[in-house]
Write a structure and sequence with these properties.
The complex is a heterodimer of chains A (about 350) and B (about 325). With about 350 residues, chain A is mainly alpha-helical. Chain A has a three-stranded antiparallel sheet with strand order 1-2-3. Chain A is about 75% helix and about 5% strand. In chain A, helix 3 (about 65-95) packs antiparallel against helix 6, helix 3 (about 65-95) runs antiparallel to helix 10 and helix 7 (about 160-180) crosses helix 8. Chain A is built from twelve helices and three strands. Chain A has one domain. With about 325 residues, chain B is an alpha/beta fold. Among the domains of chain B are: about 5-90 and about 165-235, P-loop containing nucleotide triphosphate hydrolases (Rossmann fold); about 240-310. In chain B, about 35% of the residues lie in helices and about 25% in strands. Classes of the chains: A mainly alpha (about 350), B alpha/beta (about 325). The interface of A and B includes residues 3, 14, 108 and 354 of A.
Chain lengths: ~350, ~325
């Protein structure tokens, strides 16, 4: 335990010695400051005395508590912590493993009575310290903003700390693997960003294909319902059009199903970065009985893959239900397996190598 | 502080390091160590010598578990090679070490202590004492980034001693240190030895080794070519030299163990006129007395007489020279 504490204390000293750490913290507090300066009233959103009218966001449609939680999840977590802060964290921590295995540095540690596996995994955990500290500070500040400005002291907000740290660990395990393999900070950073982009693309592609698959199912169901409606029968021309559309829809179904099967299959083996952060949507917004950000209304044009004859709101609700039907254990469990495999390989290389 | 008795207890057979048949091959071709056998006695300063790529660092790294050997029999501090308990009793300063520059000298020493499982109050106390001892007391709370290379080396020495080790392994400890600092480090090494600790010194500086080491080993291309005290290793080169006036006596020419060097080839300054140097191989002062008596009986004037033996540098050069070709072995491990 003494050695673990020493490594963590040293890691904290390293972080605090880096300007980028304090810069990221300052930006975090600045972002929370922006949240705090935003307000919601009967007509819309206020910002430093100005009011921007909004039919969607006003106190008649959204409570202050809901408003600030939406800001926290959609802007704070999804954008600041999920993208920008993560980039800063990767830039800051990408050198941890290459520095560990650098000649002259590794000798000092391996000569100590600590197993290689424990040394590597402890160092890996120190890499998560940056993300954990950043998220904790951001969440704590947001907690007070929501409490003071929104009037709700929402402790579940702090679930963001383990969730975002876990999200970061999914990227950092790849960074550690590349770091131990190449011993290069630059290679670690670039290849991790590349892997993140690929994973993000696959996640988005799966999401799009899944939407298309659901749209196809809803469309077919809606047409069949109309055709079977005896109370309000359709005329001959419409029946002909509906029958033709139904045939086309059913004809396209295997294509959507097959495409989704492959994308979903690939995604299953990859870390669920987007879905992991999406868990906060489920816990924070649903726990407060808030409407989803996508579940706004039935107005507006349909999406590219949306069904023609189904209301937009119904379609979005169906997509969201399908996404949330994937259990938390599937999201976290399969990601954890990925992390375990990558980290296991990295540890194996680290343990077996001569320095 | 480790007493001499403790050091003895640490090694029942009075050997701090007792390695036999150490083999290490990098990849499939580079044979870094080929059956090295090394014995370091408890309480001595032992010098490990060899040209670049001879396998010195590999041997040290095997003892410190940094490199995994193909085979390595024997013990370090009477425990198996790489035993974690043994590692808590060893202080190590690698060559080209890289301590984190964001830490202060005190933090480096304390971190090293914590990693060696030294409790907090002890390591804090020892960090202060050791930094004072290596002359870094005034700098201990400044970050390493502001230190010179020699200062970092001193801090590294303090870090290697923080766990009160029985065995101290130092790889080029005076690298980057100025002459005054070298002298201080040499005195420190002698002090460490006098406390009963064993020191394994890996250095390219032969004069440094010669000054402080009681025994040495020379590695060449992964093989141990010599091991023992400097006296033992240079005894075969021992000779007695007599400079006499006039030409060499005829009886000298009859002996195979005598070399005669005429005045023109002598390097010694201050010898003028017709004279000759007689070199008696393998002879010491006692053995030379009958020869001196005979020369005096022949009415010859003895200008100079002394026992001569090769320096460590001569010994080293002899060890790294191929006796069949007379050429120096190429640097690097055997392939």
């Amino acid at each position: 335990m003494m050695q673990t504490i020493a490594i963590f204390v040293s890691a904290y000293r390293e972080l605090s010695a880096r300007k980028i750490f304090w810069l990221a913290l300052a930006i975090s507090l600045f972002v929370v400051g922006i949240f705090a300066s935003l307000g919601i009233n009967e007509t819309g959103i206020s910002f430093f005395g100005w009011t921007f009218e909004s039919p969607l966001f006003n106190t008649n449609t959204t409570s202050p508590e809901t408003f600030y939680k939406l800001l926290f999840v959609n802007l704070g977590v999804d954008w600041w912590l999920g993208v920008l802060s993560t980039l800063l964290a990767l830039v800051t921590t990408c050198g941890i493993i290459p520095d560990l295995v650098a000649p002259g540095s590794i000798d000092l540690l391996l000569a100590k009575p600590i197993t290689r596996t424990r040394l590597f995994l402890t160092k890996y955990c120190t890499g998560l310290l940056f993300a954990a500290l950043q998220v904790f500070v951001f969440t704590s500040a947001s907690f007070f903003v929501i409490g003071i400005r929104g009037g709700a002291w929402e402790w579940t907000l702090f679930t963001a700390v383990p969730i975002v740290t876990f999200f970061y660990s999914l990227l950092f395990c790849m960074c550690a693997f590349i770091g131990v393999l190449t011993r290069s900070s630059v290679a670690s950073l670039i290849l991790t960003l590349l892997a993140w982009t690929i994973i993000f693309t696959i996640n988005i592609s799966e999401s799009i294909v899944n939407s298309g698959r659901i749209a196809n199912q809803l469309e077919a169901k809606e047409i069949e319902s109309k055709l079977a409606n005896t109370e309000k029968p359709v005329d001959e021309d419409e029946r002909e059009e509906l029958t033709s559309d139904l045939a086309k829809t059913l004809e396209n179904r295997p294509t959507w199903d097959r495409a989704h099967f492959w994308f979903f299959g690939v995604k299953t083996f990859l870390p669920k970065t987007t879905d992991t952060l999406g868990l906060l949507d489920r816990w924070l917004l649903d726990s407060a009985s808030m409407p989803s950000r996508n579940e706004d209304s039935n107005r507006g044009p349909q999406q590219a893959f949306g069904p023609k004859r189904v209301k937009r709101g119904d379609f979005q609700r169906a997509v969201k239900e399908d996404e949330q039907s994937r259990s938390i254990w599937w999201v976290l469990g399969t990601s954890l397996v990925f992390e375990g495999v990558v980290l296991g390989l990295a540890t194996l290389i680290f343990v077996r190598r001569d320095y | 502080m480790v007493s001499a008795q403790n050091a003895m207890n640490g090694s029942a057979n009075n050997l701090a390091i007792d390695l036999t048949d150490v083999h290490k091959t990098y990849g499939k071709k580079i044979r870094a160590l080929q059956g090295v056998t090394l014995q370091v006695r408890a309480g001595e300063i032992f010098g490990l010598l060899g040209p670049n790529g001879a396998g010195k660092s590999t041997l040290v790294k095997i003892m410190m578990t940094i490199v995994r050997p193909d085979t390595a029999k024997g013990t370090v501090l009477n425990l198996g090679v790489g035993d974690p308990v043994a590692l808590t009793r060893i202080g190590y300063l690698p060559e080209h070490h890289r301590f984190p520059t964001y830490l202060t000298g005190r933090q480096v020493v304390e971190f090293s202590g914590a990693m060696s499982k030294v409790d907090r109050p002890t390591r804090k106390k020892r960090a202060s004492e050791l930094l004072d001892r290596v002359g870094m007391g005034g700098w201990k709370d400044r970050p390493l980034a502001s230190y010179s290379k020699g200062m970092r080396q001193r801090v590294g020495l303090a870090a290697a001693l923080v766990n009160d080790p029985q065995l101290v392994v130092l790889d080029e400890p005076t690298d980057g240190v100025d002459p005054v600092g070298r002298r201080e480090i040499r005195d420190l090494l002698i002090g460490i030895r006098d406390e009963g600790r064993t020191v394994l010194l890996n250095s390219h500086l032969l004069s440094e080794i010669e000054n402080v080491c009681s025994r040495v080993a020379i590695l060449v291309q992964g093989r141990l070519v010599a091991q023992g005290t400097i006296d033992e290793l240079t005894s075969s080169s021992r000779r007695y030299e007599i400079v006499v006036e006039g030409t060499a006596p005829a009886w000298c020419a009859e002996s195979a163990s005598v070399r005669m060097i005429p005045a023109g080839q002598m390097l010694s300054a201050g010898i003028q006129g017709e004279s000759c140097k007689l070199v008696f191989l393998g002879l010491d002062a006692l053995g030379a007395q009958p020869i001196l008596d005979r020369l005096r009986a022949e009415q010859r004037t003895v200008i100079a007489a002394q026992t001569v033996r090769e320096s460590l540098e001569d010994l080293f050069m002899r060890a790294v020279t191929d006796p069949t070709t007379g050429l120096i072995y190429r640097p690097g491990a055997a392939t």
